[in-house]
């Protein structure tokens, strides 16, 4: 299903009067509103190919309908999102779920939808049919060099697919670890993993980055071999300048201060990418901003502070991706809500009066520090985000328009009710 | 595969001298050693039918070989465990994974292995092929009365299967809940669930119990409709005298004091059953005693204190079951380790000098209270547990004998390498 | 220090134009704006007398200056807050920190400031100079009946002070529990505590309520004898119709779903009161809304849903109190921020489109449920809250006016730099 | 109060027969029992001077009697512990709580008791009377260079005291951090702290080590400026070869895998010291081994594996100290229980069959890995620990003898009932 520009314009036209009223009010309190809008328009969040189908847990999965049956249909879905919100202009592929049989065709298709290829994702946490050796006891950490070699080769293959598509980064998430005390020699597991990563690193093209993602637990329940930011940073530093840490919001122990981690990784020049989602208990992979929107704002506030301090470009110098699982919502609706929450948090962070904050910090005026942050957070920035969409030719209210267009019903008609997209 | 008594006796013979040396030493410090041994011999832990295959996570599953392909083979596996350790004399079935086509045949088969049928388990957390209505948004809590009715009828059917097999209890674990704020009206979800449970309760045979299991999170990640012991107790009290709370060790928020919960539920006369496993992060479903063996001991200590205070029979007045997932170990080995850990904790709890503890508590002599508990916990009770096995005709060292017999290799020969048992 | 009405009006005058612009915009989207404003004006949050001084941790305390030196000065401080924000019209006293030597004088003084006396608080978690028996090993749970008796008598004395002042409720927070396994017999501790509470309950005047507050941990680090809502509800049910559970936001295990607890307690007719604060790790006692403002909104949303379902009056049928510790902020500024955060969350909860939410819930339209909640939460309601203040004769921007008036500087001049208020 | 050697010998004589019976049994299964005993005799745990009095929480403190009133009496108390258990041969001082007025006298006194001076501890988490600038908003992180300078000078002064006493290490625990979002610029706080630490580092004598201790939360409740091992390692690496990370068991987020942290820090050559205690919720500072004894064993298992791999001396190459708070027990009894728990865990770790473990790890035989660890853990090693004490001239059962001697009663007679030792 395609949405043409004209229908969006028509839709926006009907919303315009109310939008203008709201936007005028919102804009009246923003200093450099044009600058803010431009930043909002530039900011793009990658959609992972595996987020387009209904996710599940180990207990079960309740598929919806009209899920994409091929890489082409996944690109179509992301294109549709991007058309609606103007902020989803990239897709992140997973190998082997998304092996492109004809890379140039796929690349051209993506370009038609205004999409680029974000970080490539490898998979050594599952065994694939026909795979020579099993990852049951890990991949890059494995005591058997042959298994490690297989994992390395898989990652190199993923890089090759990425090169063909025009991607320029590889995200390595390892489920390696142990479920029982004694199962692993932690040091040797680290050393094996480092050696494996070094072999992959050696195969990176000149302009590529490698993101080393960490996770505190699951699917291993005693230790993870890349378990926290400290471990990820150790690997990244030992690997070299192309290696970075990737932060996934759901991959921490309870109560972790993620915004401080972000700040320190930026200080070290080693923050590379970001996976957005939300959670209450563990890696719950819920819609971004659905549980802790203030934390999301605080993280964005640190991201901007740290990036600005290093002269980094918000839109291009970090990899931004959603990584969630849509168990009880329509995946496309969920993604629209997630991107909206990200844009809101980003807009709020842009509104923080940095000078006033720095001054209050300098005076240990803690109450004032809080006031400055909350002044930005409590502002209703939705009209600003909507205006950025309007200017980008996207829909003023993407989710509402999605429903008016009966997109899901159309997709089910096209693709059937019982399709199941590849993914978890 | 069957293990005959004679081969066990032969095996034990070879171990006997060393065992006697250890047992004599251990027994010399125990007051009523015969009483302790009898209690250890009486204590039986049910094995759930779904624990006989390799489990997995949402990220993947790495099957082993020789898994049971039918209910008959599951009974055979539990029979084998029971033959080895003399403490696994019950099996807990799950409907629809274990629908017996011929109940009397199955009952007779179990009896041959010395097994009885423990609590029956229903499943409304997954959709089955051909099922009329979906449980995607809950079962007994569902806003649609027809879905609730379907869930109730399923549970009544499970009771009927249980009656045919000679079981006398039903465990209801509901995954009902919500993954997002606003999704549920908590009160109505509670009321719907209560109404559904009441309908199932009305169908319980005279001598049956109903266990209402609670869980803090997963697969729902915002709220669970039977989420903690407080909620479970509310349901149980409103349902009536046949309804009890069931405690699963992995179903709590971080740092919960489970032993206190156990004590209070016994005080209220509402503790009905227990699911053993171990965990570090969430419902990790690891081998019992592999992460927090001291907590297990403390729980047993409260169980005995509370049961003794009410004159309850340790072996028969609560439902004891293992509920774990064997992702990286041979399931049968894992179960042997779990039962061993349970027996050790039970034996240690039996050794607690209750009089001395009560006296120290009465004097607020906290250091002494700790000494009394640790005196029991630090004692090496393995020879006592082994002696109980010896007297019951089971193997002195079950896991070692399991390996000597090459049980798994034999099962693979019999059943094949690629079998996958029903379960998660 | 006193602030007269006239100076507030003058201050508001200078803010009025900008306020009107913002208020008009905000009001334009609210259906029953007058009804909302009236509710905001009616809503009053009690200030605890111990929150007027600088708090600390076991590691240290860094006092500010100008802290109240007497009960009279505490009342003066709360009066000042109430004058500024029109929403702090009650004070909650703690015995023995606030024993009134002349109750009728104190009562009259409070009335002058427009304050009533909220719940009285007893203290059996510390030993006072000259106290006969020690609470080192608990108070109402104590193995020694004489200690329990002393605790009961203290509570009865607190009730008597309260009667003299016109209060009508008693909050019992017990630090009772244990720091080591074995220290307590959980059941006997519960029974002793129940017996003690029953004796206090028997002394309650006809129109009084008793609030049984629970806490998961601290100052006891193994078990708490009123440790969670389930335990508190057990006590409250056994005590009788005047006994209720009191929820303090910081008294839960990590990740607890407090909004669900609130909903279920309302369902049971047993929610009595609320202590506001915020926290990231434990009972951190931070400014309300400073860490998890969305959770605060969700809690308010459940409070309103549940109270409305029972026909309860928002303002009067539950006890609302702040309970925080001001370690690094001016206590009065902190309290102004806290009340503001509460009013914002309340206002947002009032804006929730209940009909739309109920309809979306009925259709399992999870994305829509979220939209309905977030529509209210993302609205900038500060102008509504300010308008309610304006109409109540309070300051449009209380914190800003507090600073302009140099209140703290004046208090230091009056009271000195080295005063230390009673409290933790 | 002093205990003479002769009375210990007499006491041991009465215990000897039963001890020998137990020891012979225990020794019979240990390969190199003499080697194990020697290691147990060599292992010494430092006692912090502030642990000799009753601790408390922010809610209150319930002092016992006979607490040491001076540094001399603290040394006497540690001497007494060391005399009883032969494993407490060091004391760790805190400045300004323990400023020695006459260092050579203090040094001689300690030597008389067989004690050496372990790591010196500085204090910038409290304001001292007469202190020029306040640490309310941090010390080494402070925005004001003058405050940082004061903190640096204090630490240098602590080093000087340590040099005079023969200590050779400095532990820096900073409570620096923030309690509210926005309060700190995380990066600048890190940079200020690093700069301050560098100035202290520059003042370290040639043979000294600096331990940078981390803590997740408390007394700051939003962020800590040395908050986890990753941050501590960053500082230590930037400081230089004399700087190390120090691990305190209670300073982690819930569910952290401390044993893995220990292993990785040893791999990096940056583990410097260890603070023992136990906890269920936060920095509860309970008796070592009272809550999670298996975790303690697993940590020791990693310590030995990692130290052996680097050829480190167990007894001397890491700093071992208890850091607990004795709120409801006699502090000396608590310390005796803590040291006993440490020695038991150390002995169990020494019994781990390293070769078998490595072989099982190499084969991914997870069940066997667990068996190897549990074989050691389930062994009753108390007779080995007692034998080591016997050979060192200490008491076979220190706590029992402590009570028989009525040590506390004697200390109260000597020092009075109302003494309060310096500390928290």
Question: What report would you give on this structure?
Answer:
Four copies of one chain form a homotetramer. Chain A has 424 residues and is of the alpha/beta class. Helix content of chain A is 48%, strand content 10%. In chain A, the strands form four sheets. The first copy, chain A, has a six-stranded parallel sheet. In chain A, strands 1-4-5 form a three-stranded parallel sheet, covered by helices on one side. Chain A has a two-stranded antiparallel sheet with strand order 2-3. In chain A, β2 and β3 (60-61) form a beta hairpin. In chain A, α3 (71-85) crosses α10 (331-351), α8 packs parallel to α9 and α11 runs antiparallel to α12. The first copy, chain A, starts with a helix and ends in a 9-residue tail after the last helix. The model of chain A has no long low-confidence stretch (mean pLDDT 97). The B-D interface holds B 25, 254-255, 257, 280-281, 287, 290-295, 328-330, 333-334, 337, 344, 364, 366-367, 370-371, 377-380, 382, 399 and D 25, 254-255, 257, 280-281, 287, 290-295, 328-330, 333-334, 337, 344, 364, 366-367, 370-371, 377-380, 382, 399. Chains A, B, C, D: Keywords: Isomerase, Manganese, Metal-binding. Chains A, B, C, D: This is L-rhamnose catabolism isomerase.
Task: Compose a concise summary of this entry.
Four copies of one chain form a homotetramer. Chain A has about 425 residues and is an alpha/beta fold.
